[in-house]
Design goal:
The structure is a single chain. This protein is mainly alpha-helical. It contains seven helices and no strands. The protein has one domain. Helix 2 packs antiparallel against helix 4. The radius of gyration is 18 Å and the shape is elongated. The model has no long low-confidence stretch (mean pLDDT 95).
């Protein structure tokens, strides 16, 4: 919708569509996140009867589900940049947040901090939160409106 609005010369209409899509995605992923958080054990129990695997998986799923809210907007915003013809911004956001932050943070939290796998799991919501914040800030700046496709 953003690309279509840009082509029609109405980037503001496109921006409204992006924020609306973010809101809808927030509702959907928020609902899924709550369900995953509440029903983590039964969901994972459908795949294995190994209690240790279910417990570890439930811990991971609960922590990951906390990232669904920020991920909802992050996904929409980074896709919006692409729709506006700006592939550089989302690429840099993804590289910075998911590769430069998430992977080293997972290692630091797991090993030097000593949280083990739980520390590695917490790196995921941290990276998605930063991805969403950066995406929202950069989208609001509006440089994508002047992008020539």
């Amino acid at each position: 919708l953003l690309g279509q609005s840009m082509g029609a010369g109405d980037p503001e209409r496109g921006a409204k569509a992006v924020w609306l899509a973010g809101k809808y995605n927030l509702m959907v992923l928020g609902t899924i996140g709550v369900a995953f958080f509440i029903f983590a054990h039964p969901l994972l129990g459908a795949f294995t009867t190994d209690a240790a695997v279910v417990d570890e998986g439930a811990t991971a799923l609960r922590i990951f589900s906390l990232s669904f809210l920020s991920c909802a907007y992050g996904m929409v915003i980074t896709s919006a940049f692409n729709g506006a013809g700006d592939t550089r911004t989302p690429t840099l956001i993804d590289l910075g947040c998911l590769w430069v932050l998430e992977l080293p943070l997972a290692w630091v939290l797991a090993h030097p901090v000593g949280l083990g796998s739980v520390g590695a799991y917490w790196a995921v919501p941290a990276a998605f939160a930063l991805m969403s914040v950066l995406g929202i800030v950069l989208f609001r700046r509006g440089r994508w409106k002047t992008r020539v496709v």
